[in-house]
Amino acid sequence: MNLSQFSKRMTIHADNLPGEVNRVMKRVGLAVHQTIVLATPVDTGAARSNWRVNLNAPSGDVVQPYSPGRKLGLGESSNAQGAITHGQNVIGRRKPSQDIVIDNNLGYIGDLNSGTSAQAPAMFVETAIDTASHAIQNIRIDTGKGFV
After folding, report:
1. pTM of this prediction?
2. What are the residue boundaries of the structural domains of the chain, listed by start?
3. Across-strand partners of 52?
4. Continuous segment of H or E residues that includes residue 103
């Protein structure tokens, strides 16, 4: 391979990199968001529904549960699906260089994460992030001429 061929090959890699990094970032964001939503203890559905995704800045939103109830339990799925769908829609619009911000603005989410619910251990948010991180460790970036 001569210098000109090498230069062309590097240009192809460089041109494909932003799109591939964006694809990976979306997968990471989706994995983290979904894992946190599903790990969140459920009573009325408010905590699970309020895992919000925004691009570049926190949302600041507090929303009503997608499917309110009482004593819904960890197996509840309607609020989880509402939150996950919202997250998928926002993350799907991500452009290269945009940050994915996942937050929950309920006043008691910190207490839940500290272990006040028997449905989830303390630090369930951090555990969910670790779990999602391990799940996506083997994602590869396609540079157009091979994977890295």
Report:
1. 0.85
2. 18-135
3. 103
4. strand 100-103
